[in-house]
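Database export, one record per block. Field names are fixed; values are copied verbatim from the stored entry.
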Amino acid sequence: MLGVSAVAAAAGLAACGGSSPKGDVNTTFNKALKATILVDSRGRSLYEFNADADNTPSCYDDATYHCSKAWPPLLANGAVKAGKGVNTSLLKTVKRTDGTMQVTYNRRPLYTFNGYHLGNAPDAPADTKPGDVHGQNYIGYWYVLSPAGKQITTTPSASGY
């Protein structure tokens, strides 16, 4: 069973062009990016953070940026289930400094996006429904991943970060 430290709106995947997810990590075609991306069990986009080393999360709730509040890690309680299109051999977990287990894909820790509004970086709305990719290319560090575990660098024209 997967526990995500973010509150998200549960909505259908019609906005992404996908079907109902069956695993903790799934794939769907994202219309804004014109690419198949990884999503969580609720259909929310999953991101990697370029500052993370392989299998080493670096996004925590620090005093300045509150990284893990804006970018909640995808956490696991037990085995992580791969949905259709997800390469099981690339899906793992890694222990965070607080002892929780974060889901990784191709050695990259995974995060969702709650938006950013603290004034010390550009404001960005949260991903609240399937199909949202408001965190894509945020400050040049955050990107969604393909089912092959590769960074997708396409940016929706409306993002502007």
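Remark 1: The chain has one domain: 1-161.
Remark 2: Confidence is low (pLDDT under 50) at residues 1-21.
End of record.
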